[in-house]
Design a protein that fits this description.
heterodimer, A: mainly alpha, 14 helices, 0% strand, disordered N terminus, B: mainly alpha, 79% helix
Chain lengths: 301, 270
């Protein structure tokens, strides 16, 4: 549609771009600015429970002195918040690595299967992704509980004599994240492994490279875009995860998503919840920008 | 070509067992006579029967279905426009910002989207309820639709659209008569994806909903917090069945589209 681009005013074009653009500006970008604004206001017991910092954006400059950094000072003074940030990044990071270790051989195996099997295997990977996230997390409670399916089975076989305590520990959170996000890792890995030219592998093998060397020197480097895309797709949402730590980790794992939730719903401290959100966005902004670069390159190639 | 080796085969078997075992166990225990999750007391469908008596759960299911239908339709329209813009309009003011806003919601944690939308609704004095959940869900769903539509459009060159234009068709006519039929499978996939995303969402709906608009995931979540019950297993099994049916339909649509594409390409060459 290059021809339309050269016309002076094209209303069809304006409407096509304008409608989704405006929608995202109003319901995606503006909300962030509102969160930013409220994070600088002092809490009050009222509805809404905060003191507005300024009423119009024109007055921003004049009111800079009204900005209340108290919420941020509070976040940095209470180790609870710093710990939840560090905890979230650590749990998300380790889970991402585990997901990669499980997902890579699966993606590679699918890519090496015959075309008929490939379609079936891909379908099997995608099917859980379409199944309710909440229900998949819930299904692990029944398995991991002290009197759950796993313990009953292990006690019955005699492998253990005491039930394992897994539910409401960080281990359960790792299992939950790896399980829930595995399809997000396999799909981009598969996409990049599928494009791999097999003649390159044969060439390397003909030149005397051992299978592992072929993998390390040819397959792995060529699948790195898929590795990057998969890791970001798992890591970024996992940092802010709420459902998994809430249902599987309980009080044993304070991740930032749970902290934000309880500030908002239990403490009803909206300014602090907003400040937690702003800092979470700051933690994630670098990985998100890198992810968008990777995604764009993947889209172009 | 060599197939996967033994190591890869074992990895796949273990991986798929890991993906499916919890779902299978969940479905099996939905037919358990006993209320205890671990004790098998014989086959029973009584938990399915008791679902129909659970008024709160049924109301929540109705609200969720209504929300999901509205969301998938709204998100499809917005997502097609956004995907078309990304794929076919290489230059316009603020394109980088636009593509950033389309990609960011795909990875943005739910708690942030939920909190920021809630604060927006309050500052706009919108009453929280059905409408605000639809707006919130449509906002992130449209981005998924946009990505699906964009990648479908990237697979077609513009020659057919240009030919129609050269023959005198107006841009709107080209869009509705040429482009839209080409991307129909992607739009169908995007519609289904939005539907399931909306039906599934707990966190954003919790922020965006008001009194009287409790969605099914919110209802499930509050009863899961109190403990595992076979009733939840039963409703989970129904949802899994619906999704499995949807996925089969979706893959049939894709297969038909692929067959059509092959036929079209053959006709083009011939």
């Amino acid at each position: 549609m290059a021809a339309t681009g050269r016309r002076s005013v094209n209303w069809g074009r304006v409407v096509t771009i304008g409608i989704p653009y405006l929608w995202l500006l109003i319901f995606f970008l503006a909300p962030f600015l509102i969160v930013l604004k409220i994070s600088f206001s002092a809490p009050t017991i009222a509805m809404p429970p905060y003191v507005p910092v300024w009423d119009s954006w024109d007055a921003i400059i004049g009111h800079l002195s009204d900005l209340d950094f108290g919420n941020y000072e509070f976040l940095f003074s209470d180790p609870l918040y710093l710990n939840s940030y560090l905890n979230s990044v650590q749990i998300a990071g380790i889970s991402t690595l585990l997901t990669l270790l499980i997902g890579y051989p699966m993606a590679y195996g699918i890519a090496r299967s015959s075309p008929n099997w490939r379609a079936t295997f891909l379908m099997l990977v995608i099917l859980p992704f379409w199944t309710s996230f909440l229900i998949r997390v819930y299904s692990w409670i029944g398995i991991l509980k002290t009197e759950g399916v796993l313990n009953t089975f292990l006690l019955w076989t005699g492998i253990i004599s005491e039930p394992l305590i897994i539910h409401f520990t960080p281990t359960a959170v790792y299992i939950g994240i790896v399980y829930s996000y595995l399809p997000f890792m396999i799909l981009p890995l598969y996409a990049s492994l599928e494009k791999l030219d097999l003649s390159l592998l044969e060439a390397a093998a003909d030149l005397g490279a051992k299978p592992f060397t072929v993998f390390r020197r040819v397959t792995l480097p060529m699948s790195l875009p898929g590795v990057a895309a998969g890791c970001f797709l798992v890591f970024i949402p996992a940092v802010g995860e709420f459902v998994i730590p809430e249902l599987l980790g309980g009080s044993s794992t304070q991740m930032i998503g749970r902290t934000l939730w309880s500030e908002f719903f239990q403490n009803r401290d909206w300014p602090v919840a907003s400040a937690v959100a702003v800092l979470l966005v700051l933690v994630l902004v670098v990985p998100i920008v890198i992810f968008q670069r990777v995604a764009k390159r993947g889209g172009a190639g | 070509m060599k197939g996967p080796g033994l190591f890869l085969k074992v990895a796949m078997a273990v991986g798929f067992a890991f993906l499916y075992a919890p779902i299978i166990i969940l479905v099996i225990y939905s037919f358990n006579e006993s209320k205890l999750v671990t004790v098998w007391a014989g086959f029973s469908t009584k938990w399915y029967a008791s679902l129909w008596q659970n008024q709160g759960l049924m109301d929540a299911a109705k609200i969720s279905a209504g929300v999901a239908l509205s969301v998938s339709t709204l998100a499809s329209v917005l997502g097609v426009l956004a995907g078309f813009t990304l794929a076919r309009m290489p230059r316009f003011l603020g394109r980088t910002l636009f593509s950033g806003m389309v990609l960011a919601p795909l990875v943005m944690p739910d708690v942030i989207i939920g909190l920021s939308l809630l604060l927006t609704f309050i500052s706009m004095s919108l009453d929280r309820g059905f409408l605000t959940i639809v707006i919130a869900h449509a906002t992130f769903s449209m981005c998924y639709v946009a990505v699906v539509v964009q990648s479908r459009l990237a697979g077609f060159d513009t020659s057919v659209e240009e030919a129609a234009q050269d023959l005198g068709a107006k841009p709107a006519t080209v869009f509705f008569r040429v482009t839209l039929p080409l991307i129909a499978p992607a739009v169908a996939a995007g519609w289904l994806l939005s539907f399931t995303l909306s039906l599934d969402d707990l966190v954003i709906a919790s922020f965006a909903s008001g009194p009287g608009s409790t969605t099914l995931p919110m209802k499930i979540f509050s009863s899961v917090r109190l403990g595992v019950t076979p009733e939840i297993n039963a409703i989970a099994t129904i949802l899994i069945g619906l999704v499995a049916t949807g996925t089969v339909i979706y893959s049939l649509v894709l297969k038909r589209a692929a067959a059509q594409r092959i036929r079209a390409e053959a006709a083009h060459k011939g």
